[in-house]
Specification:
about 100 residues
Length: about 100
C-alpha cells in the first residue's frame, strides 16, 4: 500500500519527503534557537517542531509539541474571549417556568 502511494507522488513531492536526519536536526536546532531568542513561546514554531519530529517518526515527542501548541492557542483564545469556549449556558430567565 505504501509503495503504491509513493509511486503516485510527483518528483517535487518525493523530494519534500526525503529529509535526512541531519537536515531535520538542523531545522530543529534553528527552530529551538528561534524559540529561545523570542522570549515568548510561539505556537507556530512549536507545531513546526512537532512536524519535524513526526517526519523522524519520533511520535511521542511530536505529540507533546502539538499538545503544547494547542494549549497555547486555547489559552490565548480564552484570554481574548474572557471565558472558555463551549456550549452556552441558559440564562436564569430561560430556565424558569412562566
Amino acid at each position: 500500500m505504501e509503495i503504491r502511494f509513493l509511486r503516485r507522488l510527483s518528483e517535487p513531492e518525493m523530494a519534500a519527503l526525503n529529509f535526512t536526519l541531519d537536515e531535520s536536526q538542523e531545522l530543529k536546532t534553528t527552530y529551538a534557537a528561534m524559540l529561545g531568542a523570542s522570549g515568548e513561546p510561539n505556537p507556530d514554531i512549536i507545531s513546526a517542531l512537532g512536524e519535524l519530529y513526526e517526519f523522524d517518526q519520533a511520535y511521542d515527542v511530536a505529540r507533546s509539541h502539538y499538545e503544547r501548541a494547542i494549549r497555547m492557542i486555547a489559552d490565548e483564545l480564552i484570554r481574548q474571549v474572557g471565558a472558555e469556549v463551549g456550549p452556552s449556558k441558559p440564562d436564569a430567565e430561560e430556565t424558569s417556568a412562566p
